[in-house]
Write a structure and sequence with these properties.
heterodimer, A: 251 residues, alpha/beta, six-stranded antiparallel sheet, five-stranded parallel sheet, 11 strands, 32% strand, globular, B: 94 residues, mainly beta, three-stranded antiparallel sheet, 1 helix, 8 strands
Chain lengths: 251, 94
């Protein structure tokens, strides 16, 4: 994929209007946006949101794009951070019809398109699932049969974002396997993992290095760095391991 | 992604993806895939993989191998200030 195919030529701020609000989990919410002039995006890219207060005060944050490139609307999924500056609004007070500024798409490095093929190994920690979900939604739209594994770590069962949709995608039996692990809870009847992602779990859930999977890891910095190191230790080529770090406390 | 303001603690650092929007105000090419040669140790890496400490108005990008400051930049009302002496070379694929 040539860099120029996704390179932005100096992005303009566009006006986004909230057209729908979807509560995903107690802590996260998806915003479906109307953005006239939106140039389109690739799965894995992100955008910047800018809020301007009545006094002119501005706050800006980056959010991964949750929607597939084929969707009519752009959507983001925001986690509400305690004492955050922007997320209490976006994942709290925001209403349909509200407007804010947005620019994107940004970032050609952390990106997957169906023609790139698989195998695809996606590793998510918490809200790190968002750009990887865009990849899985794109994979489904493209009717790709690239073999894919998603290893997804959440605090509790109730914190799993897109749970029902992931179950449905996995049930299609089109080469996607979804493995969940919980770090703070073991619900009755839970058959998934019950600890943080570690080297053993990565080795068991993922592909052999000889299969040369494209690996995308997204989540808090400690999880991303530990997983990348483990996968490299397991023998995966560093060049095939792509990472995107979220702040531990975002905003 | 959601951006944060780590300062010096590697576990709070983000990566070049986090400053791509801000650098994109200056550069017309995709900065995340541009490759920098570290003037400290010679390692070549994509900007997306650099360790980043900063926020929405500026940042320091550090080499993940030797921690050398590759790029320091800040956006001020007067303009953008960029110190790239830590990045000996930049390669942008066409």
């Amino acid at each position: 994929m040539r860099a120029t195919e996704v390179a932005p030529s100096r992005l303009q701020w566009l006006i986004a209007t909230v057209s729908d609000v979807i509560d995903e989990t107690p802590r996260t919410r998806s915003l479906v946006l109307d953005v006239p002039g939106w140039p389109g995006h690739r799965a894995g890219q992100h955008l910047d949101v800018r809020l301007t207060g009545e006094d002119g005060y501005r706050a800006q944050r980056s959010y991964s794009i949750a929607s597939a490139p084929e969707d009519a609307h752009v959507s983001i999924t925001v986690e509400r951070i305690e004492d955050g500056e922007v997320s209490p609004y976006l994942a709290g007070d925001v209403r349909r019809g509200d407007q804010f500024e947005l620019r994107g798409p940004i970032g050609g490095y952390f990106m997957w398109t169906a023609p790139l093929g698989g195998p695809l190994f996606l590793v998510a920690g918490g809200s790190g699932i968002v750009p990887l979900m865009a990849m899985l939604r794109h994979r489904a739209n493209a009717k790709s049969n690239a073999t894919a594994v998603l290893l997804y770590s959440s605090r509790t069962q109730g914190d799993i974002i897109y749970r029902a949709e992931l179950d449905a995608l996995a049930a299609k039996n089109d080469g996607l396997k979804v493995v969940h692990t919980l770090t703070r809870e073991t619900p009755a009847g839970w058959s998934g993992g019950t600890r943080r992602i570690d080297r053993e779990m990565l080795g068991e859930a993922g592909f052999a290095p000889a299969e040369r999977p494209r690996i995308f890891i997204c989540g808090p910095t400690p999880l991303v760095e530990s997983a990348a190191r483990s996968l490299s230790d397991l023998g995966h080529e560093p060049a095939l391991i792509k990472t995107e770090r979220f702040g531990p406390t975002g905003g | 992604m959601s951006t944060d303001y780590g300062h010096g603690d590697a576990s709070l650092a983000l990566d070049g993806n986090a400053v791509a929007g801000l650098l994109g105000e200056l550069f017309a090419f995709d900065v995340t895939t541009a490759r920098l040669t570290c003037d400290g140790c010679g390692t070549i890496g994509e900007i997306a993989t650099a360790r980043v400490y900063g926020g929405t108005m500026g940042a320091i990008l550090r080499c993940v191998h030797c921690d050398f400051a590759l790029i320091r930049f800040v956006k001020t009302p007067a303009g953008y200030a960029l110190d790239m002496q830590g990045a000996r070379r930049i390669f942008i694929a066409r």
